[in-house]
Amino acid sequence: MASSLVDESFPVAGLLPKKETGALTFLSKYPDYDGRGVTVAILDTGVDPGAPGLQVTTQGLPKIVDIIDTTGSGDVNTSTVVEAKDGEITGLTGRKLKIPPSWQNPTNQYHIGVKNAYELYPKQLKERIQKERREKLWDPLHRVALAETIRKLDAYDSAHPHPNKQEEKLAREDLVAQIDVLTTADKKFNDPGPVYDCVVFHDGETWRAVVDTSETGDLASCVVLTSFQESHQYAAFTLADMLNYSINIYDDGNVLSIVTNAGSHGTHVACIAAAHFPDEPEKNGIAPGAQILVVKIGDSRLGSMETGSSLVRAMIAVMEHKADLVNFSYGEAAHWPNGGRVCNVITEAVHDHGVIFVSSAGNNGPALSTVGCPGGTTSSVIGVGAYVSPEMMAAEYSLRERLPGMAYTWSSRGPSVDGDLGVSITAPGGAITSVPNWTLRGSQLMNGTSMSSPNACGGIALILSGLKTENISYTPHSIRRALENTALSVDRVEIFAQGYGLIQVDKAFEHLVSYSDCPTCNVRFCISTGGKRGIYIRDMTKSEKPREYNVTIDPKYGDDIGAQEKIAFTMQTSLVCEASWVSCPSHLALMNASRAVSIRVDPRGLSEGVHYTEVQCFDTANPHKGPIFRIPVTVVKPLQTTKQYDLAWGETEFKPGQIRRSFVQVPEGATWAELTVTSLDPELTSKFVLHCIQLEDHMAYRSNEFYKFFHLQELGQSTYPFSVRGGLILDLVVAKWWASLGNTKITYSISFHSLDMNQKMIQMHAANGIYRFDVRSHLRIEEVSPAITIKNCVQPLRPNDCKISPLGARDVLPNGRQIYEIVLTYNFHQSKTSEITPNCPLLSDLLYESEYESQLWLLFDNNKQYMGAGDAYPNQYTIKLDKGDYTIRLQVRHEHKDLLEKLKDMVMLIDQKLSSSLNVDCYQNVPNALNGKSKFNTVTVQRGCSVPVFIPPVADDKLPKGASLGQMLTGTITLAKNEPGKTDSYPFIYVLTQTPHKPHVTKAEKTKEKTKEEEFQEALRDFKISWITKLEGDNLYQELLAAYPEHLPLHVTQVTAKDTHKDRNKMLPEIIQLADKVILLIDQSALATYFAMKTDTRPDALTYKVENDKLKTYLINCLVVKGCALADRILAIRAEGEATTEEETQLQQQMDQTFNDVQKWAEPEEKKVGVGKKVLPFSVKFAQVHNHYGRQLKGLMKLTDDSRPSKESDRKAIEVYKKLGWDHLVRHTENSIPVKYPPHYIPF
């Protein structure tokens, strides 16, 4: 039987690895040193307090000591204060909220706010709930409503096969309109999600809060919470979402922070570090006795991206809670290492407050120098690489074979660009453990250095638990040295991936115990060589001759170390280097002073490839302790490629996880390369990674990176082009994926190509005429076919408002250092629906290395509805906006107010994607560019030769509609004809000049000249008329009426004044009378005769056109005003509840006639007539009077589409939905109102 083959001993130990790191051995020997007494801060997406394993420690203490959201994404403005009346308050959603009698509130005052649940949901949860709500609350009811309306239309058509009467036609149009409204509503359906009233109050002892998750105002059914630290309470919003939340209250009740998790990442990380399963200890995290401080730094508004402000707030919380350890499984590529505002605050916490900061090294390998910031670039941080063991391969990944332990292919590699090793230690980089309840799964496999970091962090928590119990002092520096000096070096894994090796918890603890009285425990050594932390030679010229480096060693102490210890510090040390190509002094006497040594590096005899060594410093009195500091030395010896533009590697065999690197000196002038990989295996399909990187000063590695994961078919061949920078060394990495079984033989080759411009970008001003640039081929014969494509229009904005303010209690650094914010407000208009990307170029693309804390922007429509957000990396945040007016609020923070003052006029760019790309023509010479003939096609360029290219200004009729002076069109230019060469592109910027003036049309001169006195009297008259709408009463109108009884503009203005008056509803008969007066003054027959003419050949035809257009506008305006007034009068009579009266019948007849009259001059659904009154509002009211609800709704929708949405129009639509029995649309619209029309901008 097959059951006899079953292996019943599942490799449970491989699910959350402990054996590989010595943690299992340590706990077997010291079961009480399980993390108890240690607090680990998890800075991540947030943690679900209800997830399995996160309830208690091994001692029964609460596992989570506090949960804090430092992002602001869960903040609710609760500054509105109300008093309860008869046990009720009205929430900001408009719902009546019933106060339970059991609540204690001595002041009877309640802070209220509102929060859209979708702003709190992780992306995956939002998508699930949206789908479920649509299927449950929308689709079934909508299908019924649509089917019923279609049946009504079919029945009507059967009863009226040939509708002739206007009433019949309008009735059918109404049913068709109902179907249109339902169809449009389904297409545009956008679930606002649950919208919760929030109530905060003080019970006499502490602040409490409740979120109305009932959405009915039944607060008695909701959970009342206090700040998590006080009671460790949390709740779930609904049984459907299973999203647990907790709260914190700030600013005397004016800010409620609803804390949820922005993803499952943080919960998984926390469980690796410290989960405790009392009944299933095999599932425990590394340090089950440790407590956790949860700090959410992943902003829900940004898809869980970290921000500078959330990180600084997080470190403030870490220091205030006196956390022992930080796990940080986040990071980004930085343009320069070991600096920036965020990194400085982290370093302050480590050096001055004794916090041990552990971070992921990054998942961007296998090329060298891909470590992320801060994990691999910051001296105060312990960076952790990712290792996979044979047990993990079996238990987590179900591989058919157990391979030797290795680094994951994707684990980032050192060294840092300034020479530091980058990766300190390595740890298992995968685990199956708990995830949040909202995922509806108990556990999940995740891998990454995000998992290796908490594994190492948990191991360090075990060590600290033992040290604290045995009362042995330690510092972050002594812990790091012990970890690095006792780590297990894994065979066949390069040092750049594993650092000093796999963490060994038991050995590191014994090391710290054995050397607890060492004089270097409280001192750290800052290594500097020309401002860098190591020696990193990656330049061809520097690797061809020996060179001496002056290295400074500077002892540093924490603020709590006394003067006597500093004075007493002396140490005689030995400097050792195993590499023959590095020379260093043999000894160095250390004291509390900066010392310098000279190190000579001679790379001349080294083979091609990368070489690493260290100058290690040992205490001569205690050499077995291991190095007290290390000076890393890395040398890259590239292949010589002078005049060699094609390189090939013969038959090469790859084992799983095997990496082969080649360092190629890219030929000067090269702009792209083509890399070809060929399989020699007739049976096996394998997974490979190609990774190529070139490093430039002050630029992140991603600036010149090519990465490709691909399946190489048996005997298959794949070619991949990518851009390169001539003159820089290329780290060309070919790697077989770590889990791709079997050995594979391949060949691979690379060829370099060159089509280079004489400039790195083109910035062309429309006013500067024809633009010239030259294209040169440096390496070989190439075909040139330049192509310029414009895809975006960029609008620069200056701030409309600027405000600098001190922030609250959450934003005060140690020693009372207050953090300030500057909030810049930008307003802009969107002329049509399109995608936009806000960009703050002064600060963009900088996060950890930025001198400022943040550049968080929030985007709102003109009703303050939140539309989206963005931060450091603008290309990640693109938002689709409809036509309308919008506001961007940008927040930048710093403790130095004067630095913020410099930003008060900072420019924001709105990058708008064009609806269709614009191609710009190129030419081979100036004459062709001028006359637009013979566009540049293809030219063959010999090696070493160049060809000129000419670009004329873009024709005005090709420019995007609405583009104007000061805006820029942006795109790219490619030079090569073939597709591989198009991977190399250059930025193209086209700066717009003033748009052409429209020709000025002069009116035909009148035959009779007016005297100056007559002109004055007319001007005075017109001036007085313009004031009629601004003054109360009719005195001015009566005065002018006596003098100008037939002057049409006078009466039209009076109609407008009455129609816009605050007491309009009391003046409806007067408005009707005034409108009739204007209508009678206009000769409609003559007007109709004029517009019936096909062509007016009279010499003063323009004058007649202007005058008749004006008359037509006056006529339509007054017909519309009259019609609206008649409709309002009818509706008022009906509202009084009276039966149909003779007056109502007469008014309706007049209204119907007016509607017919309007139709003679304008379409009933026409939105604008010249600059005059809209026709559409009358059509809406006409439909309302006739109970044509479909036509009324369709009109309301069209009004909203072309103007600012309003709560009033939505309320009107709700009333119509109710009359039609469309309850699902009533509910949807009512739920949307608090989201679309919030009382405040959401907080930062």
TrEMBL record:
Residues 1005-1069 form the Tripeptidyl peptidase II C-terminal domain. Residues 35-501 form the Peptidase S8/S53 domain. GO terms for cellular component: cytosol. Residues 523-636 form the Tripeptidyl-peptidase II first Ig-like domain. Residues 654-742 form the Tripeptidyl-peptidase II galactose-binding domain. GO terms for molecular function: aminopeptidase activity; serine-type endopeptidase activity; tripeptidyl-peptidase activity. GO terms for biological process: proteolysis. It comes from the Eukaryota. Keywords: Aminopeptidase, Hydrolase, Protease, Serine protease. This is Tripeptidyl-peptidase 2. InterPro entries: Peptidase_S8/S53_dom, Peptidase_S8/S53_dom_sf, Peptidase_S8_Ser-AS, Peptidase_S8_subtilisin-like, Peptidase_S8_subtilisin-rel, TPP_II_domain, TPPII_C_art, TPPII_C_sf. Residues 778-963 form the Tripeptidyl peptidase II second Ig-like domain. The active site is at 44 (charge relay system), 265 (charge relay system), 450 (charge relay system). It catalyses: Release of an N-terminal tripeptide from a polypeptide. Belongs to the peptidase S8 family. Its EC number is 3.4.14.10. It comes from Patiria miniata (Bat star). It holds the Pfam family TPPII_C.
